[in-house]
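Z., the sequence and structure:
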Amino acid sequence: MQGQEKKDIASFYLEELKEEMESMGEKSFRAGQIYQWIHQKLADDFSEMTNLPVALREKLDAGYEIRKMELLRRQVSRIDGTNKFLFSLTDGNMIESVLMKYKHGNSVCISSQAGCRMGCRFCASTLDGLARNLTASEMLRQIYRIQKLSQERVSNVVVMGSGEPLDNYDNFVRFLRMLSDRNGLNVSQRNITASTCGIVPGIYRLAKENFQITLALSLHGASQEKRKELMPIANQYHLDEVLHACDDYFAATGRRITFEYSLVQGVNDTKEDEDALISLLNGRNCHLNLIPVNPVRERKYRRPDKKSANNFKNNLEKHGINVTIRRELGSDIDGACGQLRRRTMISEAR
């Protein structure tokens, strides 16, 4: 295998790993041992796998890799204990992950791509475009690294960091299967939430996968015109198409949709927006998550004050909409998606 690119062993399903072992002339039970080392014991190197023969470890090291994920920066909020991590990948790309601590357990927000090409107007992740998709192992290992660094169990996973998971569909689905695999971290699918800006064919595909994850749609505008103003994806998929796909997901899975709505002062927080949201969501089994927008230096958008945001929420509740305002976490540590990564990239380019 010399001269060839090493295989990304931490992205293999257990069954695929068994096939790899058999092709190497090894017993298939070795696959279970290796899988456990990588996905339960969170090994970073083959040398840690002490119940494997030295000769096998050397063969693994020659042909396979557990891709390194180097911690570049860790910021801890003095306000709420939120941790933000900046990791470097083997090719030098950088990604962000966030550890949020709640009474019900620890939640990790991970990235699914290095950068993003969706172009949402208020998001820092997309300012430099898409560098590349992440592999399943690179998504998983964000969680593994955080669990090792924090020495605490992760019980909830949110795929809402940089990137659009449905733009990286195959790797994303592989990640979901491996994360919820009983031979791995065994995180309940009901404790996994994935956010999409509304790639309609991907939502239909995901509905057929028999997952029990929560799908969160980045709505951000209650009309086609407002969405087009904030989200370029709306030029490709009409709001009616997106909502129909969401209804299909609910019908197929029984999992109610969460609608994410970034509140932007003077842009989508008016009385007209309230009325449009009420019309759109009334009668739908869903949850609306209001998110006062995180100011991004390169954008002009600002958040409404707390009183205005609460009035917006209360008026929706009066009309039977299930709504919350997302608790603000990490506001003192570049909390918004992509901010820390972008600031570091700019600093390194100088």
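The chain has a mean pLDDT of 92. The first strand starts at residue 7 and ends at 8.

Let me know what you think.
H.
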